[in-house]
Fold this protein.
Amino acid sequence: MKSEQPVAVRFVEVSRHFGTIRAVNQVNLDIFDGEFFSLLGPSGSGKTTCLRMIAGFEQPTSGHIYLYGQPVSALPPYERDVNTVFQDYALFPHMTIEQNIGYGLKVKGVPRAERKKRIAEMLDLVRLPDVGKRKPNQLSGGQRQRVALARALINHPRVLLLDEPLGALDLKLRQQMQYELKSIQKQVGITFIYVTHDQEEALTMSDRIAVFNEGGIEQVGTPGEIYESPQTAFVAGFVGTSNIISGDWVERVIGTRDLFSLRPEKIHIYPAGADVPTGCIGLDGLVRDVVYLGVNTRYLVQIDGGGDLIALKQNLDQSSVDIEAVRGQRVRLIWQKDQMRLLAGGG
Ligand code: ATP
């Protein structure tokens, strides 16, 4: 999509092994200038190691990393035009917020008046204009994380690396900070590379996402592509929930023995015997379980002839009593045929 933009970070066949552990294995990746790009995957899948190699804290065992076209293997961290924001903020406790944010500029010898101006700009950017004279322990966790962000951005790095920066915050604050981070990234236009194991966080903020599994990348795409068209069973199961379907009834209905993913919210529940519109698939079954989730209800349906499907229905006008009444009923599940996504690894 952004192929006309310069490539900010390029991985070419990059591996990082620790003894027998293949932390990162033959990764190829292009991250474009100005993107909000997330590395998403479960714990131990190699995301942080990739981030540390971009920062220069870790060296590839083999392969090459380029920053704006320049190979960086020989560059120490402080000569790379990148900055990192960590989960634990790493603010200096004895310094004021202003001193923390301006520290990098002071080290560089930027004159006091210029420093003051840029610190004020940064405090405005992260919406904390009045806390400059306070110490870190006089701020909340969310405010400290914004100060850490301001400190990392004040030098205008070309790339900002963020390693699970919201992990220590509670859910409400995390969701609020997700929107703020995205809006700050848009304002400054700097490439953000964001490590997270939280799929919702990645879907909310990213222009594109790379899904990691066991040191490799399973899929790269926009949030819509990753969610709507997962290419592997791993991606379908890790990003949101999915029915992974194969076997006899797929062969009966579709005519192949391929592996498919079908999102639960794409499956509609009708009374037994309902008409199946053209372009749709209808299967009959028995509702084995019903889980009321507030906004939605999840139904587990045992399909006649074998296999289970999960269907999700938004609770628009149905009450929890209506919902319970469906348990044990025979139903017809109907979905559009083209909602079934072919996955790699079937057959
Ligand atoms: P998390 O979300 O838990 O941080 P991650 O996806 O970021 O996980 P990495 O931290 O990159 O994963 O780790 C990938 C694998 O490499 C893990 O098995 C980890 O134990 C291993 N690993 C990472 N750093 C080292 C190291 N310095 N020495 C040995 N093994 C390491």
About this structure: The CA atoms of residues 284 and 332 lie 4 Å apart. The radius of gyration is 24 Å. DSSP finds ten helices and 18 strands in the chain.
